[in-house]
Design brief:
The complex is a heterodimer of chains A (400) and B (255). Chain A is mostly helical and 400 residues long. Chain A has helices at residues 14-40, 55-70, 72-78, 89-109, 117-122, 129-152, 160-183, 196-222, 229-259, 261-273, 276-298, 305-332, 359-382, 392-398; strands spanning 6-7, 342-345, 386-387. The longest helix of chain A has 31 residues, at 229-259. The chains are: A mainly alpha (400), B alpha+beta (255).
Chain lengths: 400, 255
């Protein structure tokens, strides 16, 4: 097996600093949005007592789900011993840690009392899925960090497989936990199902790989390093499998609901009458985020790297829409306390809730994305994460 | 009788006299103590007891259309701004609200107040990451304002839409015995401050009774002689979303 040389990118070009500065600007915008929201309270957001989790949660949960998915490339390399994926593993690990940091930051800064973070770290209710998630996130950094260390430090390389296996199992449990944040809620009709846990895992595979592909393309194109088509072809086929699996889960979930009379009203809302939610579901989540990438990746278009990048962007956009439909859509539908009755009240009972995200919410969410990108962009400059070359000849020597 | 027997006998006599004296004192003082407790509620450092389970009965057949005396009384007692006066009605907290229900088939109409149902198995307490949502021994579900981080997971979990987040800094209508705060979640407390003072009822029940509707009855569900327990034995009642089996502290008649 050929050896691969990992090297930091130079990162001294004007382009690199411009990129870093551009991303940092969005981090600053996010910070400003947080300060504004924290100073005035959630009254300046589009959230209210009906839609209690808004756009920040869409971004936060998307990033957290994508984080565990981004680690997948590394898992394929070390847990499933595919040598082809080995050179891709360090970037996979750093991207996973960065996305997790970005997502958590958004989650934490959207708290009503973000200043009480120390309370969240010292008071635990172990019956809460949220508490479990606090430990799962912390463990992700610890095990992901150790795994990355075993990849970068030759003296501990022998432990790489063990560390990778633990990180892989941990990320599966973590995404089960993320899906169960919603799956464990009995109140809302679209939640309260064990299906959300495996569905979130498969979603993480797709989102994480799509982000990974884009970062990989950018890193190699902008640093002038060779990236062969053989590797890209493998990864794009894998992405197609994941996207198809997400569509399968979505179809099964909604078809099951449609069969039950009690859930037909809420399904009609999501699938037919929900306005923006329906549009986001069919056009963005299913059409642009599912069907379109599949067509691109499985047709001759998939041979072009540009089109693979387009497909990846579509998967990400579709993923954000899926999060929006999952989180906002489920809250927009009113709670049915008296089945068979039409309810009205001063507290908006019985009506579909409207939600218009505010600018601070959008910038807080984008700030999380920016933190993830900033960490990754900086890490590839200071750590030996990227192989010098991933051209077809080099990759061919690795074996499969 | 030798010395030894005499000692045993006097010891027994002393014990008897001691017990009798203690019992007499007990009988004499106990009503006073009980009366004191009823009049003054519990001391601040005295824990609540699970022998009591506070509960409410809502008789929807007596709840008048268009009347919101219970809502006004709650707002006045607990210091939250009435939604009509709020600049941000969708974000304004509402601890209790009037629901108007209509059967689309028969046009039958129902009116009833909806608020925290004080579940024995509260989903909000289950999901709260810090333990800020908690259930008191006497069945009241509360939020500890000091450890609520404002994550709103309890609001996602509540099947009754009973909770509100305080979205903006509070005005000066706050009550000293009702702790509230921006960024924290809150809901009906069964007027816990009144109960702890020994008043034995809530502001909404007082208002409903004063208005002459008598649609609300409050009391100790565990006490078979309480007004609420007696009434519950007389009329059929239901729990809202009884299918969830949360064992509610609020029961409805006429739904």
């Amino acid at each position: 097996m050929a050896s691969i040389t990992y090297r930091e990118i130079d990162g001294d070009s004007a382009g690199y600093w411009l990129l870093l500065g551009g991303i940092a600007l969005f981090v600053l915008f996010g910070l400003a949005a947080y300060v504004y929201m924290h100073h005035h309270g959630h009254v300046v957001t589009g959230m209210d007592n009906q839609i209690v989790w808004g756009l920040p949660h869409v971004f936060a949960v998307f990033l957290i789900v994508a984080a565990s998915g981004a680690l997948n490339i590394a898992s394929i390399a070390s847990v499933f011993e595919k040598p082809l994926y080995k050179p891709l593993a360090p970037l996979s690990a750093i991207l996973a840690l960065s996305l997790m940091a970005g997502g958590l930051l958004v989650l934490v800064l959207d708290l009503g009392r973000s200043d009480r973070l120390i309370v969240a770290m010292t008071h635990f209710n172990f019956k809460s899925m949220f508490t479990w998630n606090v430990f799962l996130y912390t463990g992700f950094f610890v095990f992901g960090g150790i795994y990355l260390w075993t990849m970068l430090d030759r003296t501990v390389k022998a432990y790489s497989k063990a560390a990778g296996t633990i990180a892989f199992l941990w990320r599966l449990i973590l995404t089960t936990g993320t899906g169960s944040l919603f799956g464990f809620l009995i109140a809302r009709e679209l939640y309260g199902t064990p299906m959300l846990a495996p569905m979130f895992i498969i979603m993480s595979f797709a989102y994480g790989l799509a982000i990974y592909l884009l970062v990989l393309f950018a890193a190699y194109a902008w640093s002038g390093r060779p990236l062969g088509d053989a590797l890209v072809r493998r990864l794009k086929n894998l992405l197609a499998v994941f996207v198809a699996a997400v569509l399968y889960f979505v179809a099964t979930y909604h078809l099951t609901n449609l069969y039950f009379a009690k859930a037909q009203a809420v399904e009609a809302f999501v699938l037919r009458d929900g306005g923006i939610i329906t549009t986001l579901f069919w056009v963005v989540q299913v059409g642009l985020g599912g069907v379109a990438p599949l067509v691109i990746l499985l047709s001759s278009l998939g041979r072009s790297r540009m089109w693979v990048a387009v497909a990846s962007v579509l998967v990400i956009v579709g993923g954000l829409a899926q999060m929006y439909v999952t989180i906002i859509g489920a809250q927009a539908w009113p709670l049915e306390m008296f089945p068979g009755y039409k309810a009205t009240s001063s507290f908006f009972d019985g009506v579909v809730h409207a939600y218009t995200p505010s600018m601070p919410e959008l910038f807080l969410g984008l700030g999380g994305v920016a933190v993830a990108l900033l960490m990754t962009t900086f890490a590839v400059k200071v750590l030996r994460l990227l192989p010098e070359a991933l051209d077809d000849a080099t990759v061919e020597k690795l074996g499969h | 009788m030798n010395d030894n027997e005499q000692t045993v006998a006097s010891k027994a006599r002393r014990q008897f006299l001691g017990t009798a004296a203690a019992a007499t004192a007990g009988i004499a003082i106990a009503p006073g103590v009980l009366l004191y407790e009823v009049a003054h509620g519990k001391a601040d450092d005295e824990p609540v007891s699970s022998t009591v389970r506070w509960g409410m009965l809502v008789d929807a057949s007596k709840c008048a259309e268009g009347c919101d005396d219970c809502v006004k009384a709650c707002s006045a007692e607990n210091g939250w701004t009435p939604v009509a006066e709020s600049q941000h009605p969708t974000q304004a907290p509402q601890w209790i609200r009037k629901l108007e229900l209509q059967d689309p088939l028969t046009q039958t109409q129902l009116n009833l107040p909806m608020m925290c149902q004080h579940c024995a198995k509260p989903p909000c307490v289950d999901v709260c990451p810090t333990g800020a949502s908690f259930k008191r021994a006497d069945g009241i579900v509360l939020v500890d304002r000091h450890i609520c981080i404002g994550c709103r997971y309890c609001m996602m979990a509540c099947p009754y839409k009973a909770r509100s987040l305080v979205h903006e800094p509070l005005n000066d209508t706050q009550k000293p015995d009702v702790p509230r705060g921006v960024g924290c979640v809150e809901s009906c407390t069964f007027c816990v401050q009144k109960l702890d003072r020994g008043e034995g009822t809530t502001a909404c029940v007082e208002a409903c009774t004063a208005a002459g509707h008598g649609a609300l009855v409050f009391g100790d569900l565990n006490d078979p002689d309480s007004a609420i327990a007696k009434r519950l034995r007389e009329i059929p009642t239901k729990e809202v979303r009884a299918d969830l089996k949360l064992d509610l502290g609020v029961r409805y008649h006429g739904i």
